[in-house]
Amino acid sequence: MKSKLLALFSLVIVASMLLAACGGGNKAADQQVLRVWIQWGDNPQQIQTLFDKYTAETGIKVEVTAPLEEDKILPALTGSNPPDVLVLSGGDLVKSYAKEGLVTELSDIIKTGGIDLTDFFEAPLDQCKYGDQILCLPWGTDMYALFWNKDMFEAAGLDPETPPATMEQLAEFADKLTKTDADGNLTQVGFLPDQGWDHSDLYVRMFGGFWYSDDGQHVTANSQPMIDSLTWQQQFYTKYGADKVLAFSSGWADQYMSADYPFYTGKMAMYVDGEWMTGPNFISAFKPEASYGVAPFPPPADHPERANTAVVQGTVAVIPSGAANKDASAKLLAWMMSPDIVAEEFCFNANLPTSKKAAQDPCFTANPKFKVFTDLMASPNATYIITTPISLEFNDAYGLVFEQAVHTGADPKPLLDQLQTDFEAKLQDALK
Amino acid sequence: MDELRIGRWNWTWPPKFPKWGPRKRTNFRIGMLFLLPWTIGFLAFTLYPMLASFIYSFSIYHPRAPLEWIWFQNYTDLFKDKLFWQSLYNTLYMVIIGVPLTLLASFFCAVLLNLKVRGQSIYRVIYFLPSIVPTVASTILWLWILNPQVGIMNNLLGIVGIKGPNWMTNPAWSKPGLILLGMWGMGATIVIYLSGLQDVPASLLEAAELDGANWWQRLWHVTVPMVSPITLFNLITGVIAQFQYFAQAYVFRGFQPLGYPLNSTLFYSVYLYQNAFLYLKMGYASAMAWVLFIIILVCTLLLLKVSNRFTYYAG
């Protein structure tokens, strides 16, 4: 008898612990605490302070979790108690999540929350649209432009105030700005097309295409713009020996947030980077005396109409389909998207606002270097990265082709043909 | 209740041990109660996920929709997947080259650390220290050590006239770089070897010495056989660890995509992780996990079987 009681007792403990582990969902409905998860968060405390304002206005407490490792997100979305609003680092996975029903289509939320879609810049908003569905809302946005080191231009006999006007001229300038020692080792590089990370999205757009068709229904990996982009990028490596360029630039990405960054130390004359570099936390913090210029990336010579082409990237907010209280999520999302809050958050981080009203704030227009990016955002040629449910897998496979072509000098055409064959099939399968 | 017959024991639940008094029985139950937290943890966080992944491996996993049964298709797709073979090759490289090198190096370090010299405990601390550095920190440190421009490794090689390779950007050198990083942190293996070396009977070594065996002969004919069970243990744990190689590769690519350069660091677990959490192919990733499990199981059994020939158990 006693032993049965003991067994029963153990069973109750096991059962209650398992229930406690899986339960959770029930209490979410009547909670007064909303949870916001932000994948990319340099400064979690600042973000929490921002959301404390929402608490001050509405009495609803908001708990911020940031930053997040990417492997935490899928379990959170599939679990029974996901965050009320989730801010992803980029739009890459949104369509994969949508395909699995993990995120809410936002049309109703936008209505409930009273979110004004006309206040959004078109390019970042367009990346969230899928047919007539809206799967996410862009929050903070990044754009990329050409940075050049004026001192190095002067030393090479170039006009320090005039950046290259075409992609062809950029290659000429780069050659003048590249120096080697007696053994052929680099001591200075003119332009690195993939400094920091791969910027193929920008170059492909400049050559007039992308790796997906505009509607995202087909892969166009071996289209002419794709070949042109890789061929154009290749020259900056093959001309001087890819191994030598790789050896020279090895580890530079890890020096990004330091005074040793090669752009400041006279080792790299031109490269592509984002708006935050011109804000208070980067160049002016690490190398205030750096003499540099920023300009929209130049178009190819035969397509001057593509000037001011730029590709938006940046964070997007989604509402998990398992979120307990969609009305509360809607209100919080609307508050996050309001011009004042957008202005405050992205002024602090020196990122671009997605709200047109917020972009009027002097914070985004006073600094002429930052204004290059604010203007690009409003450019009719501002565009976005087309995504599909297989975006991440494609990106990794493309990354390999990129490496083979640009870092080892392989012929891009056959590599892109193979990529096209593999991924058109995968995409059609995923879109079924 | 049910009876289970194993050998000459009749197992019943609750167990009946005829010779046990009531006090012993109570102790047994209390003991079981103390085991409960572990049992719950094992059932909920080890056994259940394992069974679930086994089931998922036969399906396309949809988090919010019923599983789509495709039976063995994940497994057959695996064998057609170029990246699967690439990741298996990379992993086998680490197992076949990395593990023996590490064993050899740690054995010789242990032999040196076993010599009776002044300040030996300080040397032991120095050799052990790297293994308490967290994996991420030591990997980032090695990113700098192996940096071809400013790294200490190529500078040292330069002093002896060797032009060091591009460790991190040349696909032929990325895995050797990671093996070096692993060997730097082999302190735990050294300590296990050291304890084994101290168990080698001094009488045997003395006898060999009296018979005229030199240092090398004593090492090869006495010490090596006497520590062979330790070698087997280090070998098997090393092989298992290398098959599951993940964290260092995840950190080592820096800002580059996983597998950089040219997928030379796309190890099995890395590709599994990509499939599970980035491509949302949980079923496929589960199939990969089970294939890895079988590979490790077969390797371990094979090593145990083969080891009979070279392992000597004293007593």
What would your notes on this structure say?
The complex is a heterodimer of chains A (432) and B (315). With 432 residues, chain A is an alpha/beta fold. Chain A contains 19 helices and 14 strands. Chain A has 2 domains: 187 residues, Periplasmic binding protein-like II (D-Maltodextrin-Binding Protein, domain 2, 3-Layer(aba) Sandwich), CATH 3.40.190.10; 212 residues, 3-Layer(aba) Sandwich (D-Maltodextrin-Binding Protein, domain 2). In chain A, the strands form 3 sheets. In chain A, strands 1, 2, 3, 6, 12, 13 and 14 form a 7-stranded mixed sheet that branches. Chain A has a 5-stranded mixed sheet with strand order 8-9-10-7-11. A two-stranded antiparallel ribbon of chain A has the order 4-5. In chain A, helix 3 links the parallel strand 1 and strand 2. In chain A, helix 6 packs across helix 14, helix 10 crosses helix 11 and helix 11 packs across helix 18. About 2% of the residues of chain A have low confidence. With 315 residues, chain B is mostly helical. Chain B folds into 2 domains: 54 residues; 227 residues, MetI-like (MetI-like fold). In chain B, 67% of the residues lie in helices and 4% in strands. A two-stranded antiparallel ribbon of chain B has the order 1-2. In chain B, strand 1 and strand 2 form a beta hairpin. In chain B, helix 3 runs antiparallel to helix 11, helix 3 crosses helix 13 and helix 13 packs antiparallel against helix 14. Chain B is globular and about 70 Å long. The two termini of chain B are 42 Å apart.
Short summary:
By secondary structure, chain A is of the alpha/beta class. Helices cover 44% and strands 15% of the residues of chain A. In chain B, the strands form two sheets. A two-stranded antiparallel sheet of chain B has the order 1-2.
